[in-house]
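Whiteboard transcription, Tuesday session. T.W. wrote the structure tokens on the left side:
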């Protein structure tokens, strides 16, 4: 029988005997979530069904309808019970946007382009609720990393907190990572902005830049600024045969071009800067009416450290959940895993949904402690190993990178995220006007300025 909510907000099914019993519970819970409740946690203590059968039952409820549930769910098995976590789907229209832009801009392009393969894989993963990593994760990056890893670099503060090597391998499966490059191109194209010569601020290993130049009809010179020794190694290797790419290993504030430039682009790097100084220096190097385009992750508004901690955890854990939920229907891949990989899967499916539940319930301190403990635990499992037995594991490795960024963000250590409205205020105070803003991907409920991946385009005035 179904009990009332316990003190931990659990719905307990003590003995599941038939499909309809589970249908009735989940349907009620999902309607409540669509109408405003933050989450549902159903715990099945005993059942005549095995885990795979329960997955099929839940999937049939989710899919066999003339309507779409605005829900994400996750099923996990422990030694004593089966649990079903359910949360709101914040990106109901994301797939349609992704497909429309893919058909408009990419459909006729070569299939071996990084950006086309990445977005095609993301469409497939969302549409079919399956792991669909780009092929280049397992073969093209290997040739790059083999050359870069043969060179030793001194690790700086950034690299002591963030695993740059893993980012080179796994960031392409990040939700909206490739799509943000398509949205940047859309802004350039529709506003007739000349991108033949521009500055890339904090390019990292260079995958995002590679996706952008695959879309550009032509370009003559791109100054690529990257201070991280390891990231710069990947950058040089990636573009070693491209004479139009000019890699520069220095911090952005130390970069002084010979003449002002009309365009500067920052993808995923603005939150590693003193953002106020970023606008001041960008204004110095841009010509009159020059554009500064920022695509990055932003959290929801906050006014104190506790709110910021809550918003950072909510933001990153949403990305993580959107990655690992793809494992709901898939068990066949587990047989290919080694012991460490299997433990990574088990821990990920067990702990990440609980962190999301804790933060939605307002238990910020519990959620933070769980994040720190999990970071330590997975660090031992992963142990800086870049080899994976199957490309689907890139989703779990990226989840670990998100966890690294989450903890660094709480500590305000190399991760200094702000919120979009504050970014716009800082830009306007430094002589920029807002030309365009769009939220590309959503990580929490709320309006257009809440957390997620945003594209924000400014003009120097």
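and on the right, the sequence the group agreed on:
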């Amino acid at each position: 029988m179904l009990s009332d909510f316990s003190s931990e907000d659990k719905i307990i099914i003590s003995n599941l005997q038939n499909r309809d019993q589970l249908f009735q519970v989940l349907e009620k819970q999902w309607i409540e979530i669509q109408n405003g409740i933050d989450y549902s946690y159903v715990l099945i203590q005993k059942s005549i069904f095995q885990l795979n059968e329960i997955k099929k039952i839940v999937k049939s409820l989710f899919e066999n309808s003339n309507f779409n549930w605005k829900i994400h769910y996750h099923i996990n098995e422990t030694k004593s019970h089966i649990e079903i976590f359910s949360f709101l789907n914040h990106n109901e229209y994301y797939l349609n946007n992704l497909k429309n832009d893919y058909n408009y801009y990419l459909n006729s392009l070569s299939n071996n382009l990084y950006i086309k393969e990445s977005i095609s894989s993301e469409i497939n993963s969302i549409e079919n609720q399956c792991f669909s990593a780009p092929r280049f994760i397992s073969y093209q990056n290997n040739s790059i990393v083999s050359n870069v890893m043969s060179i030793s670099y001194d690790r700086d503060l950034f690299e002591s907190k963030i695993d740059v090597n893993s980012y080179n391998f796994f960031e392409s499966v990040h939700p909206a990572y490739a799509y943000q490059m398509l949205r940047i191109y859309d802004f350039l194209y529709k506003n007739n902005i000349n991108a033949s010569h521009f500055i890339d601020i904090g390019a990292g290993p260079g995958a995002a830049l590679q996706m952008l130049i695959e879309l550009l009809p032509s370009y003559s010179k791109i100054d690529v600024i990257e201070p991280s020794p390891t990231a710069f190694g990947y950058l040089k290797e990636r573009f070693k045969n491209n004479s139009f790419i000019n890699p520069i290993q220095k911090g952005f504030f130390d970069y002084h071009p010979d003449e002002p430039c009309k365009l500067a682009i920052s993808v995923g790097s603005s939150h590693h800067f003193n953002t106020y100084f970023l606008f001041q220096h960008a204004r110095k190097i841009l010509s009159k009416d020059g554009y500064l385009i920022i695509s990055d992750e932003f959290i929801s508004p906050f006014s104190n450290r506790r709110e910021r901690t809550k918003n950072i955890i909510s933001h990153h854990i949403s990305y993580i959940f959107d990655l690992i939920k793809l494992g709901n229907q898939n068990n066949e891949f587990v047989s290919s895993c080694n012991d460490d990989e299997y433990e990574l899967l088990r821990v990920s499916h067990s702990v990440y949904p609980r962190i999301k539940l804790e933060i939605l319930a307002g238990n910020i301190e519990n959620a933070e402690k769980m994040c720190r403990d999990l970071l330590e635990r997975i660090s031992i499992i992963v142990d800086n190993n870049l080899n994976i037995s199957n490309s689907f594991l890139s989703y779990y490795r990226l989840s670990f990178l998100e966890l690294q960024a989450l903890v660094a963000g709480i500590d305000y250590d190399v991760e200094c995220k702000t919120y979009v409205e504050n970014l716009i205020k800082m830009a306007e105070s430094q002589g920029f006007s807002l030309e365009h803003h769009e939220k590309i991907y959503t990580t929490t409920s709320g309006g257009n300025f809440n957390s997620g991946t945003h594209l924000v385009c400014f003009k120097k005035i």
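Someone added at the bottom: Residues 93-461 form a domain with the Rossmann fold fold (CATH 3.40.50.150).
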